[in-house]
Structure formats: structure tokens, C-alpha cells
Design a protein that fits this description.
It is globular, with a radius of gyration of 24 Å. The protein is of the alpha/beta class. Helix content is about 30%, strand content about 25%. It has three domains: about 170 residues, FAD/NAD(P)-binding domain (3-Layer(bba) Sandwich), CATH 3.50.50.60; about 130 residues, FAD/NAD(P)-binding domain (3-Layer(bba) Sandwich), CATH 3.50.50; about 100 residues, Enolase-like, domain 1. The longest helix has 17 residues.
């Protein structure tokens, strides 16, 4: 039986949150702390996709891979290698072996009431919870319903119905395919190619565009492509699948399907054969199952923030931030405004429009970026100057890895003389990014940044070269 939230009457709550991922959990914690009764509806594992199938397992797989790769480029070390069974076991341990009992108990201990099942709207402030056993429980929100349902795979029409992996299957893999095809060239595709190649799979990436990670600084994509090819990944640019053939899939239970060999016919009429296929073709907000038409709305209404004052969408489901950390930030900002008085979703997003978005692709090397690229800054109307610096010229970077790979670039607004963007590709750049984020969010002038002295010998001394070029 669900536990009881503070001040909740039977099936009546101040707040109903549909989705128990990090965004929903952050919001629920805030409302519970404020003494509001809070219900959480979850149809899958409590903790959400990030905890079991995305952020945590992918990083659990990637960290040993990148450490092992780094040691191969450090004199004085040898025989460091990735052991597939041990690495997969580490992944499983980090996701609690796909058991959410502790996560559910933890959120209930904070005072939330957890209902298992699919949450569907059915009128104003009304949510029906459809359980797997066919039962339906009706909940009523006295103040608000908040949708934090995350995303679902965005499969191109030509590939619909093909027995294939999505990103969840890739992070939850129990076996390593001998030959793996990855369709896509974004962060998910690049990270999966990194760990699968390290596990011994022969990986081929079929990328429709002419580069990886479109939308980033071109040098980042070039460096990453070179390093993926160095570890044996075959990247086929300007390649699109016209047809995928596979014997009927074998149902393994738990919604998993495994088929026979995969044959892909490209638009150039080439035929390629693999043992498994990963569709890393993007994701879209998971809004279809919410029964929005029961209140006269469409998914586009939600994404465009045309919702009644009692209905809000946060995180991936809002279409605003498709990154866990940014969604959690959005939830914190929303909670602050909501608890201070009723707000519309548009109001809750207004203060966030200038917040720099941060992201890291945890490949080897890491690709870390915040705010604008040079191109996006110019498109946004900024008059900018830029600076680039090679990590090979930084003594501290050479101590992290003997044959240094990587580059950094900053984008500076001439009018304010403040950073509006930064991109760093190299060893451990994920841990270096926050300095740039603080500089952008705090609108710290370049002249002031000169007095933020990086420690010698660290890779952060790359800032000295960058700042000199824009001063």
C-alpha cells in the first residue's frame, strides 16, 4: 500500500507528480519540505530512466574504459585492460541490479506517496493510475499536476518495428555483440561506441551527416572521430539506412527482443551485415500516453507552454532541457516560484532563458561544452571574438597523458567582454567545465578572469593561453 503524505486525504493531494526520475524527485522533495502532500506516479522503476538506463549506467561503463585507455598512454604502467564480465557487473551494481525497492522506500520515507502504474489525465486536476493488473486508481490534485515523464526513443519511420536496441538496451546489455551497427552520431551513439568497442565489439557507426555531434564546434567532432577510429570504430559518414532486414525477433520477456543477423541496405545500395543494431536516433518528450485530449490539449500545447495554470511540464517532458542536471535546475526554479504563489509554466521558465546549458559527452577524450558555440553566438546576434588553445601546449595536461589529445575554445561577447560559450575536448575536461559555467552565469569580465590563477601544473592552465588571446 502507498504510504501517506503530510495532510493528504484519501487520493487527494496538493501535488501530483507523474514521473519519478531526478526532476520529479527534486520537485517532490521541495514540495514535501514545504509541507505539501505529494503523490508520485511511476509506471517503471522508481528513480527514472537516468538512474537505471541512461546517465548512471553509461558512466559506470565509461569510467573504467577511459581510465584503462589513459593508462595505455602513461609510461610506467602496463597490462591495464577492460574485462567485459567485470565491467558489466560494475554497471549492474551501480543500478542496484534494476531493483528499485530502496529508491521507492527512500522517497516514501521523505513523505511522498508512490503509486505504480501509468498516469493518465482525465479532467481538471485529475489523474488516473492504470496498474499492470488492470486496476485503476483516481487521484485528485488540489493545487497542481506536474509532468516529468522524460523521453522515449524517436525512431525514424523507415526503422519502426525493426527488432533493435534502443539506448536502454545498450546500457543494460548482458552480452557483447561481435558486430554492432549504431545508427546515429550524437552523444548516445558516441558513448555507446566507446564502451562497446572497449568490450570487444566491432562497431560500425552509420552517420547521416558529415560529422559527429552536429551543432558543436567542428574541432570537437573531428578530434572525437579520429580517436574513435583509433580504437577501431568504423565511422561511415553520409550513410543512411534505406532498409533493415532481420529474422523475426525472439521474445526474451521484459519487453526485450533479440533477432538474428541484421542486414542493412544503405541508400547507396550497399549491403552490410551485423549481429546487433542500436538505434541512437534521438528521443522525444514522452507525452503521448498522458491522455491530453481529455482536457483539450495536444503534446504541442504542452511543449509550447499553452497549459492551464494547474498543469506543468518539467525536464525532458517540457522540451526545454533534455539533460538531467538542467531538468533538476528547472525543477528547483519552478518549486521556488510555485511555493511563492501560483505561476504559469511560462513564468517558471522566464528566468531560465539566459542560463547556460552544460553538457559532457563522456567519450575518450571527453567533450565538454557550455553556452554558445561561435556559430550559434553569431546566429543569436552576438558580436564575438574567439580564442583556441591546444592542451598539448599545457604542461599540466601532458602529465595527465603522455600523448596529449585535445583543444579548448572560448567565445567572448565584444560588447560585455564576458564569456558566452566554451568547448573543451580532452582528458578530464568534464571536471574543468564548471569554471567556464561560473564565468558565463556570473557574467565575469575577461579582465577579472585574469586574476583567477590556475594551479601549476594542471590542465586548467589552458585558461592562461585562452585569456591572453581575447584581451
Amino acid at each position: 500500500m502507498p504510504s501517506t503524505s503530510p495532510s493528504a486525504t484519501e487520493n487527494h493531494f496538493d501535488i501530483i507528480v507523474i514521473g519519478s526520475g531526478p526532476v520529479g524527485e527534486v520537485l517532490a522533495q521541495s514540495t514535501l519540505d514545504a509541507g505539501l502532500s505529494t503523490a508520485i506516479v511511476e509506471h517503471d522503476l522508481v528513480g527514472g530512466n537516468c538512474a537505471y538506463y541512461a546517465c548512471k549506467p553509461s558512466k559506470a561503463l565509461l569510467r573504467p574504459v577511459t581510465v584503462a585507455a589513459t593508462t595505455q598512454h602513461l609510461s610506467g604502467l602496463r597490462d591495464t585492460r577492460v574485462v567485459a564480465d567485470d565491467l558489466l557487473a560494475r554497471r549492474s551494481e551501480k543500478v542496484s541490479n534494476y531493483d528499485d525497492a530502496e529508491a521507492k522506500q527512500a522517497i516514501e520515507d521523505k513523505g511522498a506517496t508512490v503509486f505504480r502504474g501509468h498516469g493518465r489525465l482525465n479532467g481538471e486536476r485529475t489523474v488516473e493510475v492504470h496498474d499492470s493488473d488492470g486496476s485503476v486508481t483516481t487521484l485528485q490534485a488540489d493545487r497542481a499536476v506536474v509532468v516529468t515523464t522524460g523521453t522515449i526513443p524517436n525512431i525514424p519511420p523507415a526503422l519502426e518495428g525493426v527488432p533493435a536496441w534502443d539506448s536502454q538496451d545498450a546500457t543494460a546489455a548482458q552480452d557483447v555483440p561481435t558486430r554492432l551497427a549504431i545508427i546515429g552520431g550524437g552523444p548516445v551513439a558516441c558513448e555507446a561506441a566507446t564502451w562497446m568497442a572497449a568490450l570487444g565489439s566491432k562497431v560500425t557507426m552509420l552517420v547521416r551527416e558529415g560529422s559527429l555531434l552536429t551543432g558543436l564546434e567542428p574541432f570537437a567532432a573531428d578530434i572525437l572521430a579520429e580517436q574513435l577510429e583509433y580504437v577501431g570504430v568504423d565511422i561511415q559518414f553520409y550513410t543512411e539506412a534505406a532498409e533493415v532486414r532481420r529474422p523475426d525477433g525472439l521474445d526474451l520477456g521484459l519487453g526485450k527482443v533479440k533477432g538474428g543477423p541484421v542486414t542493412i541496405r544503405t541508400k547507396d545500395s550497399n549491403f552490410l551485415e551485423f549481429d546487433e543494431l542500436l538505434l541512437a536516433t534521438g528521443r522525444r518528450p514522452a507525452l503521448e500516453s498522458l491522455n491530453l485530449d481529455s482536457i483539450g490539449l495536444t503534446a504541442n500545447d504542452v511543449l509550447d507552454q499553452r497549459t492551464p495554470g494547474w498543469l506543468h511540464a518539467l525536464g525532458d517532458a517540457s522540451g526545454q532541457y533534455r539533460l538531467t542536471h538542467m531538468g533538476k535546475y528547472q525543477a528547483r526554479q519552478f518549486a521556488q516560484r510555485f511555493l511563492g504563489g501560483d505561476v504559469t509554466q511560462a513564468d517558471s521558465n522566464a528566468a531560465q532563458q539566459h542560463t547556460p546549458t552544460t553538457q559532457v559527452v563522456f567519450t575518450d577524450p571527453q567533450v565538454a561544452y557550455v553556452g554558445h558555440t561561435e556559430e550559434s553566438a553569431r546566429d543569436a546576434g552576438y558580436d564575438v571574438i574567439t580564442a583556441e588553445a591546444d592542451f598539448a601546449d599545457v604542461a599540466g595536461a601532458a602529465l595527465l597523458r603522455d600523448d596529449v589529445v585535445g583543444k579548448a575554445k572560448i567565445v567572448v561577447d565584444k560588447d560585455t567582454n564576458c564569456l558566452v560559450g566554451a568547448t573543451m575536448v580532452g582528458t578530464e575536461t568534464a571536471e574543468m567545465l564548471h569554471a567556464a559555467t561560473i564565468a558565463i552565469a556570473g557574467q565575469v569580465p575577461i579582465a577579472t578572469l585574469h586574476h583567477a590563477v590556475p594551479v601549476f601544473p594542471t590542465a586548467s592552465e589552458v585558461w592562461l593561453g585562452l585569456l591572453e588571446k581575447v584581451s
